[in-house]
Amino acid sequence: MALKSQRMTFVFAIGAAVFTFLTRLLPVPGLANIKPVGALSLFGGGRLHWWLAYPLPLIVMYLSDRVLHEINEEIRPFYWAYFSFAIYVLIGQVMCRKRSVVRITGAIFLGALQFYLITNFAVWYSHTAEPRADYPPTLAGLLACYIAGLPFFGYTFAGDLIFSGVFFGAHAYLTGTASDREPALGESA
Q1: At a CB cut-off of 8 Å and minimum separation 6, what does 108 contact?
Q2: pLDDT in tens, 43-81
Q3: DSSP for 52-98?
Q4: Nearest Cα to 161, choosing from 119, 122, 113, 121?
Q5: Mind listing the pLDDT tens digit for each residue in 84-107?
Q6: Is residue 58 a contact partner of residue 19, using CB atoms and an 8 Å limit?
Q7: Quick one: CA torsion of 175, 101, 155, 57, rounded to 10 degrees?
Q8: Distance of CA 93 to the CA centre of its chain
Q9: How far apart are CA 46 and CA 42, in angstroms?
Q10: Domain ranges of the chain
C-alpha cells in the first residue's frame, strides 16, 4: 500500500508541476502573484524526497520563464524568487510533513512572508545603483519598497492558501490519507 501511495504522490506532484507551469503562462489581470508556485514548493517539501522537492518548482520556474521570455523579451528570470521558492520547500519539509491543517496554514503564512521580505528587498537592492531609482538606497527607501509591496503580499498569501488547499487536499483525497496518518514520501513509517 505504501508503494502505491508513493507512486501516486510522485504522479500527483508531476501533475501539479504541469498545472503550475501552465498557470504561470496565463496572465491574470489585477491578480498578480496569485500563482501556485509557492504551493507547489510547500507541497513538495511536505510530501516528496528532498532530491525531487527542491528542483521541481525551480524547473517549473525556469521553463516557464523561458517561455515567457520568448513571448515578451522584457520578461527576465528573477533569481531572488527562485531562492525564495527553495526556502518554501524547506518550510514545507519542516512544517508540512504531518497532515495538519494548522501546520500547513502556518507554513503558507511563513512562505508568503519570506517571499514578500526577500523579493521586495531584492527589488529595492537591485535598483539602488540607478540614479532615478523608485526607492533610494536608504532605510527609508527600503521601507517604502516594503510598503508598496504590501498588496502583493496579500496576493501571494491568497494564492498560496488557495493552491496549497487544492494540492494538499486533492493529494490527501487521492491517496486516501485524508483521515489517517500515513508517512510522507521519503518519511520513515
Answers
A1: 38, 39, 42, 157, 160, 161, 164
A2: 999 999 999 999 999 999 999 999 999 998 888 889 999
A3: HHTHHHHHHHHHHHHHHHHH-TT----HHHHHHHHHHHHHHHHHSSS
A4: 113
A5: 999 999 999 999 998 899 999 999
A6: no
A7: -40
A8: 13
A9: 6
A10: 2-175
- Looking at residue 127, the DSSP 8-state letter turns out to be T
Tell me: the pLDDT tens digits for 16-28? 999 999 999 988 7
This prediction has a pTM of: 0.88
151: cell is 498588496
Q: Which amino acid does the sequence have at 31?
A: L
Counting every residue written for the chain, the total comes to: 189
50, 185 contact by CB (below 8 A): no
Report pLDDT for 49: 94
What separation, in Å, do the N-terminal and C-terminal C-alpha atoms of the chain show? Answer: 12
> From CA 71, how far away is CA 1, in angstroms rounded?
45
Which of 89-126 are b and which e, b meaning 16 or more Cβ less than 10 Å from the residue's Cβ? Answer: bbbbbebbbebeeeebeebbebbbebbbebbbebbbee
Q: For residues 141 and 126, is the Cβ–Cβ distance under 8 A?
A: no
Q: Which residue has the cell 496554514?
A: 105
Q: In the CATH scheme, what is the code of domain 2-175?
A: 1.10.1760.20
C-alpha cell at 68: 515567457
